[in-house]
Specification:
The structure is a single chain. With 220 residues, the protein is α/β, with parallel strands linked by helices. Helices cover 35% and strands 24% of the residues. A hairpin with a 6-residue loop joins β4 and β5. α2 crosses α3. The protein is globular.
Length: 220
Amino acid sequence: RMGETKFDLWPAQRQVVPLFLKNRLLAILKARQLGLTWLTAAYCLWCVITRRNFLAIVISAKEEWAIEFLDRVRFMYKRLPSWLMRDLDRDGSQHMRFVYEWDEGGKRPLVYSDIKSLTTTQEGAQSKTPDLLVMDETARNRYAREIFGASKPGIDKAGGQIIVISNSHKRGPGWAWTRGICSGALRGENTFKFLFMPWWDCPERLTPDEAEKLMADPYF
């Protein structure tokens, strides 16, 4: 069960925020339990409550993960100050709609933004043309390649953003595609910005001095 706590970012998390803001294509390969899902949920929420007619789509490998992602968005939304909140026209397990303007009768939204947290389909976001597509845990997603291929042309045309996030789950069905995106970014073979987040990015696991010594190890 999720409890309330102040969202104080770790140093490694603070490095991610500018990357969200500055890069249209971003790939993050990370260790587990680094708080990146919460950070990404916060970014999606910020986008839809500050930008009109914005569509954020999050694609997860499992339905329970898709529902959990939107639960995190909802958890944060309900704790925002009142001046940041917007009316909700839809508040389902996999779709939230934030309304900017209603019709004169106050029954139909005229201007709104959406977050949709979906499970895997080969078509991905092909028909929806999102402003932001988050592909979460792609190493575990057997259709990661197909989703990216189906979604990217429309997103490129609209000038949208794609964020790929994954653990290095080497036995996962989407690992080959995930590894290709990340290694291609490192070699300059694609236009993704790449970030690697090791397990010691969690400050509770190593001190900064210990992390620095580990990075300096020639056998690392």
